[in-house]
Specification:
The chain has a single domain (19-249), classed as Rossmann fold. It is 27% helix and 28% strand. It has helices spanning 32-39, 75-87, 138-149, 177-182, 192-202, 232-249, and strands at residues 25-29, 43-51, 54-61, 64-70, 92-101, 111-120, 134-135, 155-163, 187-189, 205-212.
Length: 251
């Protein structure tokens, strides 16, 4: 089945944006508040819609038209955003978000550029077989690495783990983070695998750059009792990741 492309006068059903108002490049973030913050970095920003967790803005960055959209928490809801952007004609999507470090050296304030994602989410398995890889566009990965290093922050590159669980359960082990650490996974987040799979299905570019807001294994806090993403060191990494994403989005 060929990828769906909607006409210019169509309205995206859940994003509620008109196709003709979208740029061909989009920065996606989980938090609607962060999307508003990104919009402030654009020239002539306009809020197009605010429906559920999906807040959509348009503007330009360094003279290039861009769209900014929030997708909420988790792959299932985020997949709606990614799919509708692709159907609306977006050809490059970069996700900038937060993630938890898995390797001991990937700690608060670092940036991770994803080369691909482990598909431990639920939605991607309803789109393609388990054997199908979730990989970022190589050219975007390289460019994001260069742009992230230009911030002066500590940068890591590698495969991330995309899972559906945020807070762990004391009943069963939902995600074996130590096993994934041994496998070389760099960080854990909740949406990248869905983005990379959907982008592959539509034949468009996709990348991911993440600010690290903690490391449950290094901090001996696997229960996440002390989780606090609202610290200056995390804010600095978030700003660095967003700057890298915007620079590569328009490059």
């Amino acid at each position: 089945m060929a990828p769906v492309r909607l006409p210019a006068d169509a309205e995206l059903p859940l994003l509620r944006a008109r196709v003709s108002d979208l740029a061909d490049r989009a920065l996606v973030v989980g938090d609607p508040g962060r999307a508003a913050r990104v919009a402030e970095l654009l020239d002539n920003p306009v809020q197009l819609t605010a429906n559920r967790e999906y807040h959509v803005y348009s503007g330009s960055y360094k003279g290039v038209p861009v769209t900014v959209a929030s997708h909420g928490v988790g792959a299932a809801g985020a997949a709606v955003c990614f799919e509708e952007l692709a159907r609306g004609g977006v050809t490059r999507i970069i996700r900038s978000g937060t993630a938890g470090g898995i390797q001991p050296e990937v700690v608060d304030g670092a940036i991770v550029v994803a080369t691909g994602a482990v598909r431990a989410d639920g939605v991607s398995h309803q789109l393609v077989p388990t054997e199908f890889p979730a990989i970022a566009t190589p050219e975007l990965t390289i460019a994001l690495r260069v742009a992230a290093e230009a911030t002066g922050l500590n940068v890591h590159t590698g495969i991330v783990l995309t899972g559906d669980m945020f807070y762990p359960s004391d009943v069963i082990v939902g995600v074996d983070h130590r096993m994934w650490q041994r496998a070389g996974i760099v960080a854990v987040e909740m949406e990248a695998a869905a983005l990379f799979v959907i982008a592959s299905l539509h034949g468009i570019e996709a990348g991911g750059v993440f600010a690290i807001d903690g490391n449950p294994l290094a901090d001996a806090d696997e229960a996440m009792d002390g989780y606090d993403p609202y610290r200056d060191i995390v804010t600095q990494a978030v700003d660095g990741a967003l700057t890298a994403a915007l620079d590569v989005l328009v490059s």
